[in-house]
Amino acid sequence: xxxxxxxxxxxxxxxxxxxxxxxxxxxxxxxxxxxxxxxxxxxxxxxxxxxxxxxxxxxxxxxxxxxxxxxxxxxxxxxxxxxxxxxxxxxxxxxxxxxxxxxxxxxxxxxxxxxxxxxxxxxxxxxxxxxxxxxxxxxxxxxxxxxxxxxxxxxxxxxxxxxxxxxxxxxxxxxxxxxxxxxxxxxxxxxxxxxxxxxxx
Length: 201
Prior knowledge:
- The protein has 201 residues and is of the alpha/beta class.
- The protein is 30% helix and 13% strand.
- Helix 5 (145-162) crosses helix 6 (191-200).
């Protein structure tokens, strides 16, 4: 039996309402939809600010690759410009997390299971979580207390989840990646303070 013949036809008003709703941008819809996006993070409190899929490799870590280190970066850009770079397919670069200087706000740009293109060394990319910090290597004023605090808590969480020792042999600067031409986080990054904060987070 064809049940469709016996169902009432929707009114013109209902059809127009449905069409109008379909045309509403996602940002204007109720908070329920925004909540789904907010949940797409691995670290509680991080904001999902996805990099373009053209700038990272989809994976299934730690099954596909073990994760055994954290790599610390400095953007050499503002927070906003760094986000634009990670969302630009032409740039071919991404990061797992980006920490803002002023308040330590954390954006997650690539999920931890995926391989972000941040280290300039494929082996190190596959086995690390990359954390960018807004600022410049020669401007220590960007390395605020809030940035250190929030970043250290993030790194401690990553280390705890993957069983990474919280020491300088496993929490590296970009400059320490073999083959890199980068110098970040630079001479003003306070490693002693940072490692202590990671261990007490």
